[in-house]
Amino acid sequence: MPRSTRYVWVALMLACGCALADVRALHERLIVLDSHLDTPMQLARPGWDIGQRHSYADDLSQVDLPRMRDGGLDGGFFAIFTPQGPLTPEGRTLASEHGLAVITRIRDMVAARPDAFALATRAQEVPAIVASGRRVVLISMENAEPLAADPGRLATYHRLGLRMLGLVHAQNNDFADSATALPHWHGLSPAGRELVQAANRLGILIDVSHASDAVFDQVLALSSAPVIASHSGARAIGPHPRNLDDERLRRLAARGGVVQVNTYASDLVPRALNPERDKALAPLYREFRLAASLPPAQVADLARRIREAEARYPLPATSLDDIMRHLLHILDVVGPRHVGIGADWDGGGGVEGLRDVSQLSQITARLLAAGYSEQDLADIWGGNLLRLMGEAQAAH
Ligand SMILES: [Zn+2]
Predict the structure, then answer these.
(1) pLDDT at residue 243 in the model
(2) Which of 2, 36, 165, 245 has the fewest C-beta atoms under 10 angstroms from its C-beta?
């Protein structure tokens, strides 16, 4: 552990009157879930084995079995993420094929290691899986575009294990407007409204992260089940349009919903426009998204070039303090029964000092130091997410 981190630990232990071993032991007792893992993108890389230990420095990956065990991460929602393509018949067909390929990849990961992973399709299955020492795999979708060609396919995805549906990503799609695009539908499209109702009928949670404010409002009014934001922050702390303002946080909680706090650096702290950085990094990030087709040596080289470019055009430094500012603010606004963690691992999440899932107990230590109880921590790390899953199941 670097010296600076050690000082923080010492200060925390003094503050909460507990030893490092106690924090670890408490963290291990909890069911620790993350509601937004982009790890299926890593699974596409030839030769990349989730059972082996990797490092962020070598290949920018943040989740594998050894590091999940180190960080006490019992599992989470593995996302079927689809980059938004053109809203054309060809674009819809491509998205549809992509979605089915990714859910197959997730299911194959579980099938290949039945000793290490188990797919959960009901909230009540989760504690037994955790008790058995296996990791819980839940399946979500980030961007519903794979359903645009045939929304009826939602039932197929449900049979394959889909239990959470994020309507939209960084651009508008056939169902909804994005938080980071100019309004097109001014909320949900007619197909988007039908999709929300279909998800309700199947017991699939609706995820409003990345959705515009208008979509958020319309989903909240329309959904028969409580709603989740699987990886979002507080707009009062970081004024990014992806983040939720206090009034919306309160309404989400009042309807029984949960906000899972994100660690995506540029959403955590405001960043000034930096066109040189964008110009240098955009082609590298594009290459990285295609990393599935690259051999490991080329991935390592790409990781090195990305690190160099990021260092040449640095963003404001972000640390665990920034994550905690969002987390503690949201806790203040809605209370510990409506907050969780969705850190966007393998999708751009993580900060200096918390670069992968192996260090999650640092968040537990900070929450204890802030005065939250073991029961609060149990709710925040997994209890709230499972309660919401159960309520979505019951509502259909
Ligand atoms: Zn995202």
Answers:
(1) 96
(2) 2
In a domain, 26, yes or no: no
Number of folded domains in the chain? 2
**Is 20 within the bounds of a domain?**
no
The answer to the question of residue 11 being in a domain is no
Q: What is the pLDDT of residue 177?
A: 97
Distance in Å, CA 344 to ligand 1 centroid: 7
Q: How far is the CA of 127 from the centre of ligand 1 (A)?
A: 27
Residues 6 or more apart in contact with residue 388 via CB below 8 angstroms: 205, 226, 228, 256, 257, 258
Residue-wise pLDDT for 277-310, tens only, equals: 889 988 988 887 776 667 778 888 888 898 889 8
CA–CA gap between residue 134 and residue 114 (Å, rounded)? 8
Which CATH number characterizes residue 132's domain?
3.20.20.140
Q: What confidence score (pLDDT) does residue 47 get?
A: 87
Same domain, 214 and 287: no
Ligand 1 centre distance from Cα of residue 383 (Å): 22
Q: Rounded to the nearest whole angstrom, what is the distance from the C-alpha of residue 163 to the centroid of ligand 1?
A: 17
| 41 Cα–ligand 1 center, Å | 13
